[in-house]
Design brief:
Helix 1 crosses helix 2 (about 30-35), helix 1 (about 10-25) packs across helix 3 and helix 5 (about 120-130) crosses helix 11. Helices cover about 45% and strands about 20% of the residues. The protein is an alpha/beta fold. InterPro entries: LysR_HTH_N, LysR_subst-bd, WH-like_DNA-bd_sf, WH_DNA-bd_sf. GO terms for molecular function: DNA-binding transcription factor activity; transcription cis-regulatory region binding.
Amino acid sequence: MRSKTPLSQVTDFDLRLLRLFKVVAECGSFSAAESALGVTRSAVSLQMSDLEKRLGMRLCQRGRAGFALTDEGREVLRAGEVLLSAVENFRAEINQINRQLRGELNIGIVNNLVTQPHMEITRALKALRERSDEIRVNISMSTPGEIERGLFDGRLHVGAIPLTTPLSGLDYRLLYEERSSLYCSREHPLFHAGAEPDDDTLGSVDAVVPGYRMTAQAMALHQLLNCPATASDREGIAFLILTGSYIGYLPDHYAANWVAKGQMKPLCPERLFFDSKLAVVTRKGRRPNLILESFLDSLQDPR
């Protein structure tokens, strides 16, 4: 399938095929992409074959063994995302000239912020929608590190992440603070203990530590615990706490639902907690983007 001649130009047809390939890769199979794209599986397969012939390389393996991207497919997907982002940036710049709110806004958000009582992001999205119904908002839930990488390579316009170690190439705007406390589940022996556990007791039970960057205060509190388990995000921490085998820190607003149901409780809440700053992040030196600027203008100042 290797092409004998280099790709001479990128056409509108190529862009449509690359968008289809991106959806297929995100869905993880032709059958899942079928419903997402609103076309038949045979049409998805045919267009994927067209793209492979066009590029002269196999992009994915499909069959009884399942779906998987080839090494070349992963490289094409990465390059395609950069290309499609550049096309969107061009459209955003033209709309900036025309002062029209039309195009895409790609947002990366750390998970579990929707339960945060401060709703600046929600209000800003609502205000953006009220200004124009020709904006396509794409929200991806991810880790702070992946969001930062998405901002640097242009896949994301804006992110919402904990403010721990600011990177020099990004601009940070404080949104609000959230408090995290140490929790155990109803299945854990400490849940039914009559007195608050001391540090020796807490250090003798298993705990879970986040796999992402933390503030110095959060690191110091985790160093008091025995942490044989890690989790990439806060949902993973909650999963492990709910097993009854681990204790761990969760944002109070995220744990509140389980606490209300009697499924979790905080341990030593008067002293075992830390506060984290949440920030909206953009890339320094970014190109003008009317949609992004409108979104940022709609964010309320932190209180």
